[in-house]
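Entry, Tuesday afternoon. Goal for today is a structural model of the target with flavin-adenine dinucleotide bound, before we commit to ordering more compound. Inputs were pasted exactly as handed over by J.K., no edits. I checked the ligand SMILES twice against the vendor sheet because last time a stereocentre got dropped in transcription.
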Amino acid sequence: MKRREFVGAGLALAASAPLRGWSAILKDVGDVAAKSLDGAALTLSGSSVEAFAASLRGDLLLQGSADYDARRRVWNGLFDRKPALIACCTGTADVRHAVDFAREHRLLTAVRSGGHSISGKSTCNGGLVIDLQSMQGVRVEPELSRAFVEAGSLLGQLDHESATFGLATTAGIVSHTGAAGLTLGGGFGRLGRRFGLACDNALAFDIVTADGHFLRATEEQNADLLWGLRGGGGNFGVVTAIEYRVHRMDPVILGGYLMWPIEKARDVMRFHRDALANWPEELWVELALVWEKDVPMAAFEVCWSGERTAGEEILKSLRAVAKPAYDNVAPIRYVDMQASLDESLANGKYYYMKNGFLNQLSDDGIDRILDVFQRDPGLFVLFLDPADGAYHRVAADATAFPNRGATYWLGLEGKFPQREGAEAKIEKIRVAWKELEPLVQGFYTNLADADEPLSAYRENYGANLERLIALKSKYDPNNLFRLNANVPPEA
Ligand SMILES: Cc1cc2nc3c(=O)[nH]c(=O)nc-3n(C[C@H](O)[C@H](O)[C@H](O)COP(=O)(O)OP(=O)(O)OC[C@H]3O[C@@H](n4cnc5c(N)ncnc54)[C@H](O)[C@@H]3O)c2cc1C
């Protein structure tokens, strides 16, 4: 690369410079080394990169740009990747230019909204990151019960704007997660038993497809695409906005944590399993096995979003399983509950996860889970989230999301203080998972780890695979968007 010069807009705009926003002008860029779609080395001429930069209202960042390092970081610190270019898009126009540039150069392309991909799929080495972090904004129309969400928005923004009108919809359990990635892959959350997956509530998507065209996908327009975007991940293009159905709900819920010593875990788990099917859908209770320092504990994370008196009654039954060692379940703002895990799952730490769906939980299964969990103190936390209720009311072929009908969603989550030594711990988690794997059927693509081969995704899409392949062939025939739960098009 020859030389790069960044001139702040307004300081030294040449008379001939295109009209721009606040982005820096990129001049005298030498050739840029990059990676093609299939991973081969390729060279982007400086003039093509400059022209690309000039077409954007947002910044185009290269290695050495002031914000490059901050911008390339993703939630999982294990993926310390260095893209050749980061296009910081400010709107649909920038996204179209970025998609055109990627397609014309056959450039390896990642799409980033909240950056919370467990497997680091929203970044890459040597490719282009289409970065939507600047595209944030949520507008709620209470009379229509709709939330209009720009694709770079985080879940906390959706929850916050909805709550002010006494509205809510299913969103994930950590408020700094991106709305787009979560919704495209499904979207479980504390309200999911009541309102369904986030993608079930997504009524419309705005999207730029691989050919650079802008489409709106609704039940009336491009309905095939709407089907695929509800669970088919980032396979079909770059989503720029999502319209959600939001539901009336008291912004104050009953929520918090109940914890018991591990000796009570078997009773706690059996109780959860036996009670789940009869619980009202306003009740969401995550069953977790955690380490408090080096002490193993069983926990319920509780969210009751229904009428208060009925909730207090149900809570009595949870507390009666055994006397909790810790209990902070009380009225709490839903938005605060949604942020309660934000710090413990902070950005930039080192994480590894395994997950799968359970159709049933036998006594033997419970014993096996307890045994595997306690074997290696502090190695991982384990959670069993309900996957029933409203999730089941949508037919398995009504959306691309394939994993309907399970009772639980089981996850192991390892968090490591530093990169050094993480690989050895990851290997131990893989071994532990081998023992639990026979209990599960399929996995949640949004929490899949980087080990999953393409064939596992294909198998996981099950009966929806053929339709997904047809859609992929229609909207992204060259598999420009492949850093995702990928469905390659027909050959
Ligand atoms: C701390 C944490 C908590 C989580 N909790 C939950 C939970 O409660 N429930 C749940 O269901 N999941 C949960 N997840 C998983 C989550 O759904 C995925 O990690 C999801 O991909 C995050 O979306 P994002 O926009 O932040 O991701 P990104 O890393 O930005 O994107 C992930 C992938 O999604 C696709 N994508 C993202 N944005 C777009 C777009 N605009 N257009 C096209 N494709 C796009 C791309 O393929 C990209 O590689 C959690 C993850 C983390 C890290």
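Residues 75, 111-118, 121-122, 132, 151, 172-174, 177-178, 180-182, 184-189, 233-234, 238-239, 345, 446-447, 483-484 surround flavin-adenine dinucleotide (CB under 6 Å).
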